[in-house]
Fold these 4 entries.
Entry 1:
Amino acid sequence: MAAPHPRSPTLDLLLPDEAATAALARRVAACARAGDVIALCGDLGTGKTVFARAFIGALAPGAESEEVPSPTFTLLQCYDREPAPVWHFDLYRLSRPDEVYELGFEEALAEAISLIEWPERMGPLLPADRLDVHLTYGETANARRAVLVGAGSWAARLDGLDHND
């Protein structure tokens, strides 16, 4: 799991079902802008891809039915969205942190919103200015807990996320 930032603002939320995870993703998407890094941390099945699909869908009104596949085998999927393109990285299969550069990570940082599943695979290359979304299993089969940790420009934006749709 990506290490949380010391003394960064934190938001701890209980998500009773997949719809609540998607609603959180839509709220985060409404705050996102070019150059943002959103690190999606959690074990298999905790909702990282659910979050990513809802985030990507929220930035394309009218295109909610567009297929958003998990980039597990391709490592990267790119989406033309507003206010910026979204680059959805799944780094589970990365062997070394520097392989992220072969995927165009520097270009993503310059012009896109980067959603990164398995960000810990980047090691020290993971930018410090980011939003960490830590997803864990909840008390019931469909429930999840989300702990959001904001650093840099995300620190001030976390306050606006602590409400329901």
Entry 2:
Amino acid sequence: MVGDPERRRRARHLGPERRRPLILDAALEVFSANGFAGTTMQSVADAAGVTKPVVYDSFANRDELLLALLAREEQHLVVSIVAALPADPSVGTPEEHVLEGLTAFLTAVSEQPQSWRIVFGAQYGAAPVVAERVRAARAFLVESLRLTLLQSLPGVADPDANLPILAELLASMTESCARMLVVDGTDRSPAELAKTVSQVVAGGFGNV
């Protein structure tokens, strides 16, 4: 990978702390193109236009590099998740919340494909500590959905009985739609995917 010439020039002349963001930029490109197995310290060094020892000056090993990259990209994803949740879940129906929120969320996903590729890809073949970081990010999504559903359905007699299940199912469908957009490829738009999901889950919400 050739990498950006200006970034390569700057990376060669910066100290480790200032160089880290540039190396992470290069790592994101490499990981997005080649996955976990194809992301090596050498391939990242090549993409950043520096020598491998320079990369090791910033990150002790590949797992540390990937964890730092996940932490950075997760910040983008958390912002997307929070922005997609309804400001007032008590206004409107759960189906409307799913349609509007998922459309906003999947639109953000389509605009940040590299961030999502690393989250999906890091689940496969990564060290346990990296995979655990990915699971924690997904747990945050499920809990956010559960709380939103709870506020959307104030009349539910026993919310703990069914809402966690619905939240998990909705999180799985959300994840599948995001994967279709950034990994598998689809000719469906974020709005079309969101509409399909909202129609599927509407019956489930109505029977809680």
Entry 3:
Amino acid sequence: MGIPEFLKQKILDEYGENIGRKILEGYAKNRKTTLRVNNIKSSVFEVEEKLKNKEIQYSKVAWYNEAIIIEDGIENDIKQMDMYDNGEIYLQSLSSMIPPIIVEPKEGENILDMAAAPGGKTTEMASLSNNKALITACEKNKIRAERLKYNLNKQGAEHINVMIEDARRLSDMFSFDKILLDAPCSGSGTINADDKNLEKYYTEELVQRSIKTQKDLLLKASNIIKKGGEIIYSTCSILKEENEEVVKEIMKKGNLEIAPIDLNKFNGIPLLPVEIEGTLCVCPDELYEGFFVAKLKKKG
């Protein structure tokens, strides 16, 4: 396995031998292709019919009707279908579908997506709100912002304002009902154990750089969320220093409190133990990437 020694040690130290080994084994699994039905352009019934017509075996998950697991095909099989080209579906990991569900975007709500590209969560929020939430999608990189615009257009997502801007530099004059901060992270939940270059780019420096960015973004979010508004903070990391520790530090500075996530809505998801009750951390396996989500409320 090409997993850096320092990361192995962190995982074993944080989670103990039994759970730590389970995580490391999860890295070695080949994850199945998963997709999300785009309600703006299609329906679950129509997409399932198209899969049946192509004799592609699929299964569902209990917690999200629009999520589909491809059992016997590969990503390229799906990319060759018209429904992919037409934006009727979006290829997306199951874990990354969770944060927008926790946002619960509603018609007319003013929502900020702080790190939006390539647009999977942005378009999911549009779909969940029947295309009627007012979404500001931030992306600092021009090339990634163009990809974001392409996906928004392909998915038929409306009422979305794309800002090519580092969300850390947003004016404190902004005010949002809800904020989704899917923060840049080390990606410790999405590691592929077969990646030969892993030790070159997955470094302690990457983790520390990610933590600084996460804290800066979450602090900014706390400044521009309305009183009583909610920030959904997520990462594709399973390291507590990028998750619970970031949340704990900014809660003190940003006048935030935990709004507990209802775990009953996510039955069947393999969860890891968390230090903050009411948050959620997904264990990597053959279906799920490692992922952390916390919901924070601005105190009145």
Entry 4:
Amino acid sequence: MKKLLKGLIGVAIAATVSSAADYTIKVSHVVNANTPKGKAADFFAKRVGELTNGTVKVDVFPSAQLYKDEDVLRALQRGSNVQIAMPSLSVFTRITPEMQLFDLPFIFRDKEHLYKVMDGAVGDKLKKKVADKGFIAMEYWDAGFKNFSSSKKAILEPSDAKGQKFRSMSSKVLEEQFKAIGGNPQILPFSEVYSALQQGVVDAAENPYANFYNSKFHEVQSSYTLTDHGYLGYLVIISKKFWDEFPANLKPLVTQAMREATIYEREEAAKDDETIFAALKEYEANSKGKFKIYTLTDKQKEAWRVAMEPVYKKFYDVIGEDLIKETIATK
């Protein structure tokens, strides 16, 4: 009986050891797990486990538990404590100036055009430029188009921006964008934007639905104009050091899981936009005229494109004239 019991224990231990993952991938991101990016990171972890039959385990660390976006690139180059991250596209402009393409105003006609650029020749060229800096660029994830908001004057025509103080990310393209319409860019970290708007340090800002609503900017802005003039997104990258040493037979499975996660993330981002916009409309209805959402006419949008177009030429040498024109021409 004792021999039988020992044998059963031995089998159980062996099964536990054999079922343990042979490889672990740590994923770092800076947003809440309930956001589209957070949900997609967890979806990726689940699919990797399924596709590799548990050989590869993915641990996800949300809300900057491991690294902030500005620190994760250096950590990925080391490849020891994190293997995958999905920083904002703006983070890459420091190492790959051509990525400023995504900051250009009205460069994307709509979401369909954006995805064709990202998933096509232009997107591949930009991935290769990021790869030249020591990373493996995997997929583009979505955060949404930006819209203008203000507490001073509703921004419907380019002239409405004149003299307004706009919060800006640290981006030469965005600074030129605001200057082109007579605005005064004020560079501020995102964490300080709410108080800056509340105290009048800045009058206006640009944000997609999620950032605008979840950060409660609607409480300190009187208008939100659906311009869709700019874009925010992410690029999923993996440590080259880690990937070079990763088994060749497992790479296609991880790549497949990431492609599926990308489709899922974009679908979740679209759903999130619908839900949040509905919440904004409800807030508008209950605000007693203190907050209003505006939609531009085609004529107004064309006026914005004309006003912003000179910004492109200023960055021909930095981003590449051919790359900008290829983006515009993408069908």
